[in-house]
Structures are given as structure tokens and as C-alpha cells.
Design brief:
The chain is α/β, with parallel strands linked by helices. The chain is built from nine helices and 13 strands. The chain has one domain.
Length: about 400
């Protein structure tokens, strides 16, 4: 029967049809399949939390300077960046990822931090804690039992910040920066620690990058305004990127945001903040490619001077989302694969745009801190006390006399 040409043609066409259906099914259902693949096996309430990091130990930090920088009593007044990284774990290992998860740690240190913390490293010391990230499943299923994963992750970020303040800050000014899930925790950290002096005065700026910041967040939860000018300080920068061709509804409606009582909900129906990183303004004007200083794909932690791809994209804020032209340069494109739209890009579209804006705000904050009034300049800490043995007192006859 197989020798019959007619039967062979039917079998060939039938096999081809099956292949086409399988490929089409994989394309149509790859989002659902990816979501299934990252679903934790158990319930949050029944899952033991991964061990807590000890932020007194250097290994609990993804980034920190090898030597402590000059204290705030020096001139000029120095500024650190406290950076909260995005999610780097994409498996279904649990609701929160252990800080020593090898796959997530390698991706974070070799690909995500060099691209997204890289611009901040260009400007000064960066402190980036490892923390028990909420799973990607939690990010995609806001409002369910996984909301506890966000609370657990934030508790780590808060402990890390308090340790940094107690030991490492040395009265220096601060830039807060968070990308993706890290931006969510920066918002709450801003409210929990930066509403009173001295930190309120020492905040140069807060950068909430690729995370949804509700428009009613400034002015109600925090006192810092939005950054409406290029070099404004004591203010908040925020944007959430939508690449051309992506589903706008997911970006506008499905992102986790805090409610007034610090519960997690979705951004659906909420006006969002958008500051165009090509213009650093709050308007909806279209920025041309010539305004784009450049993006970069950093190839590893040792790549300290990445190649910059200039004039690659246009950008405009539209209904609270930064709509960006999809770049033609391969270096500034996602690698693809299942779930790619949910993962942190391993490149930075605005690498070269962030650096001068950041250094400009830091210079303005430094000048303000140095010159606003002398009372703000902290005194250099006293040296540690030295214990001395009791010294005997000698009488005129040369015999020791001990004081009572």
C-alpha cells in the first residue's frame, strides 16, 4: 500500500498537516504553557520560606564597593545608590527564590546587573542586596495567595537597607533605584524610610524603572514629587516600557502595585506615571531617534565599558506607558523563547541616557547638601575609645601610690 503514489501523497500531506497543527498549537498556547511551567507546586502558606540572608555578610550582597567610600563629612558630599534588582528566577522552584539559587544568581550577576545596575555603577558606589525574590508566577497572578511572596521579599529589602544605613552609609546622600519587581519595593521603601529627615533631605532621586507607579502615589503616600525637570532633585523618576507590537493591556492592567494599606493589587484602571527617559519630562511629546543617547547589551560583569548603540529608538509617553519603537539593532532585541515578554531584558535600551541624567542629579544634590547650610554637614565620627591600663602614681620617695 505504501508503494501506491496516491496513498503516499495522502500520507505526506497528512503528516505535514499534523506538524503544522502542532507548531500552530505551540504558538497559540505557548503563553499558557509557560505560565503552567512557572506555577509553584504547593501553596504559599504551606511552603517553608527559604533561609533569610544575613546582610552583615558580604556574600548577601550582589554589589557593594570593596572599600568604604568617603563619609558625608568630606567635601564634596558623596552619594551612594541603593539598587533593588528585578526578578532573575524563572523556574517553578517556589513562591520565593533562595538567594543562593545558582541559575538565578548567575543570570543576575552576569547579565541583569551589568545591564540594569551598570549605569548606576558608572556614577558611584552601588549597594545591591540579594533577596528572596517573589516568583514570576506571583507577578503574573496578583491578588492571589502569592501576594505573601511580595511581603516576604520586601522584608528582605527593608532589612538590607537598614543594615546599609547602620554600617555602610556613613552619612552619605542616596539614590534609590529599582528595576521591575525591584521598583515595586523601592516605592514602599521610599514611603517607609524617606519621609522624615535626615534621609528625606539626603535623597537625590528615586528611579522606578519598568514598574508601574500609580499617578496618585506621590503626594498621598510620599512627600517627594515627580521629577519634572532634567536635574531636579528630591523627586521620583518612573516609566514602564512597552515595545512596539507588544500587548498594551498587559502592561497597563496586570502589573502589581501597592494599595493605600500596603496590599498588592493590579494596575488595572489606574493612571500610571511616565517620565520619558529621552526627554526627562512629564509630557507626551514624541522623542526622535536623535534624542536617544543609546542602549547597550552588556556581555558580562567584566564588561565595564559596553558598546553603545545610539539613535536606535523613538519614545513617547501614552496613557502612563512609555511606548518605544522596536529597535532594529539585534543587540537591543529580546532573545525570544517562551515567556520572553515576562522576563527582564538582558539589555538596557536607555543605558547611555540614564548615566548623564543620574550624574547630573547627583551633582545637583551634592551641591545642595554642601551649600544649603553648614548645620547639615555631619561631624566626622570620633575614633573608637582606647582602653588603658591603670597607671601608678609615684610618691616623692619613688614608691608607687595607687589612687582609691
Amino acid at each position: 500500500m505504501l508503494k501506491d503514489p496516491k496513498f503516499r501523497r495522502i500520507a505526506l500531506f497528512g503528516g505535514a498537516a499534523v506538524v503544522v497543527l502542532l507548531v500552530l498549537g505551540a504558538v497559540l498556547f505557548q503563553d499558557a504553557l509557560f505560565r503552567m511551567s512557572i506555577t509553584p507546586p504547593g501553596r504559599f502558606a504551606q511552603e517553608p520560606a527559604p533561609p533569610r540572608a544575613d546582610y552583615a555578610k558580604p556574600e548577601s550582597w550582589a554589589l557593594r564597593p570593596a572599600q568604604p567610600p568617603p563619609g558625608g563629612w568630606e567635601t564634596p558630599w558623596g552619594i551612594d545608590t541603593f539598587f533593588v534588582s528585578p526578578a532573575s528566577a524563572y523556574s517553578n522552584a517556589g513562591w520565593n527564590t533562595s538567594v543562593d539559587n545558582a541559575e538565578a544568581l548567575d543570570r543576575l550577576k552576569e547579565r541583569i546587573l551589568p545591564n540594569h545596575a551598570g549605569p548606576f555603577l558608572q556614577a558611584g558606589p552601588v549597594y545591591a542586596p540579594l533577596y528572596r525574590q517573589a516568583s514570576l508566577h506571583s507577578e503574573l497572578n496578583v491578588g492571589g495567595e502569592g501576594d505573601g511572596a511580595f511581603e516576604l521579599a520586601y522584608s528582605d529589602v527593608l532589612r538590607a537597607f537598614d543594615q546599609y544605613m547602620a554600617v555602610d552609609n556613613r552619612h552619605r546622600g542616596i539614590v534609590l533605584a529599582g528595576v521591575g519587581q525591584g521598583g515595586l519595593y523601592v516605592q514602599r521603601l521610599l514611603a517607609d524610610r524617606f519621609q522624615t529627615d535626615p534621609l528625606k533631605s539626603r535623597l537625590a532621586a528615586a528611579y522606578v524603572i519598568d514598574d508601574a507607579l500609580p499617578a496618585d502615589f506621590p503626594g498621598k503616600t510620599v512627600s517627594q514629587p515627580l521629577c519634572a525637570q532634567y536635574d531636579q532633585i528630591h523627586c521620583i523618576v518612573a516609566w514602564k516600557t512597552l515595545m512596539g507590537g507588544d500587548d498594551a493591556s498587559r502592561f497597563r492592567d496586570q502589573s502589581p502595585v501597592w494599595t493605600a494599606n500596603w496590599k498588592i493589587t493590579t494596575s488595572k484602571g489606574k493612571p500610571l506615571v511616565c517620565i520619558n527617559p529621552l526627554r526627562w519630562t512629564l509630557d507626551n511629546e514624541l522623542s526622535a531617534r536623535v534624542d536617544h543617547r543609546g542602549g547597550a547589551r552588556v556581555r558580562g560583569s567584566a564588561d565595564l565599558e559596553p558598546s553603545i548603540i545610539e539613535n536606535a529608538v523613538t519614545a513617547r509617553c501614552n496613557n502612563g506607558v512609555l511606548e518605544v519603537e522596536r529597535p532594529s539593532a539585534p543587540e537591543l532585541q529580546a532573545d525570544g523563547g517562551t515567556g520572553a515578554q515576562y522576563k527582564t531584558p538582558e539589555y538596557n535600551l536607555f543605558y547611555a541616557d540614564i548615566v548623564p541624567n543620574l550624574t547630573g542629579r547627583m551633582s545637583a544634590a551634592t551641591s545642595w547638601l554642601d551649600n544649603v547650610d553648614n548645620s547639615r554637614k555631619p561631624a566626622q565620627p570620633l575614633p573608637p575609645a582606647v582602653s588603658l591600663d591603670d597607671a601608678p602614681i609615684y610618691r616623692p620617695d619613688g614608691q608607687p601610690e595607687h589612687a582609691n
